Amino acid sequence: TTQMASASQQRPIRPPGSVPEERFLDLCIRCEQCMKVCPGPVLQAAGLEHGFEALWAPVAVFPHAGCHQDCNFCTQVCPTGAIRPLSLADKRRFVIGLAVVDTGTCLPHHGERDCQLCFDECNAAGYRAIEMRPIQLATGPMPEGTFSPEEIEQMGRILAPFVKPDACVGCGLCEYRCHSAWVGQQKLLRQSAVVVKARV
Questions:
Q1: Considering Cα of 143, then 145, then 146, then 150, what sign does the dihedral take?
Q2: Which residues partner with 135 through β-bridges?
Q3: Which pTM value belongs to this model?
Q4: Calpha distance 103→89 (Å, rounded)
Q5: Mind listing the pLDDT tens digit for each residue in 18-56?
Q6: Residues 133, 81: contact at Cβ < 8 Å?
Q7: Which residues pair with 158 in a beta bridge?
């Protein structure tokens, strides 16, 4: 039972400026001010997925939206200090999570198609926490003499996204972009191939 409870109660991703979790839960009065000013809306009221203690406290839900680099509204309205005030410059450096690419889901990692939506989104936000690197895919058997070994190697190469942990703040813009394009619009994936997780 303990193992099941800890799996279902993974650490939530709190708004930028949040104090450590135990203190956060003591200070947060569930007034919803941070959620009301969030333009995304990235911030949502937690259900029971993070345990009873965390019920109704704000959590970042990135399939809804990413935490925009030019917004610090949530850090300005908390009446109790659960979320500390941050300047925009400080907010852009405040780490709330870490983006992780699921190579089993990601289209280029799978060799299904080129995609660099997460990379483009991250660069546009100024974080530059994702880089595109060439990976080699397995190529099937080819009729002998049709292609040179160099051509075969080139055909099996694709650029795929990799997260640079030292540069990632966990803003979720990459997750939102992947989710909206490939899950929401194209319906090619069942879940985003890049997901932000709480740092341990």
A1: positive
A2: 158
A3: 0.86
A4: 32
A5: 999 999 999 999 999 999 999 988 999 999 988 999 999
A6: no
A7: 135
Residues in the chain: 200
Share the mean pLDDT of the chain: 90
SS3 per-residue string spanning the chain: CHHHHHHHCCCCCCCCCECCHHHHHHHCCCCCHHHHHCCCCCEEECCHHHCHHHCCCEEECCCCCCCCCCCCHHHHHCCCCCECCCCHHHHHHCCCCEEEECCCCCHHHHCCCCCCHHHHHHHHCCCCCEEEEEEECCCCCCCCCCCCHHHHHHHCEEEEEEECCCCCCCCCHHHHHHHHHHHHHCCCCCCCCEEEECCC
What is Dmax (Cα atoms) for the chain? Answer: 72
Contacts of 38 (CB under 8 A, 6+ apart): 71, 73, 74
Say if residues 188 and 182 touch (Cβ distance below 8 Å).
yes
Residue type at position 60:
A
- AA letter at 133: R
In sequence order, the 6+-apart residues with CB closer than 8 A to the CB of 120 are 177
Token pair in block for residue 192: 């985003």
Whole-number Å distance between alpha carbons of 74 and 135: 40
pLDDT at residue number 140: 63
Q: Give the pair of three-digit tokens for residue 183.
A: 């899950």
- What is the end-to-end Cα distance of the chain in Å, rounded? 22
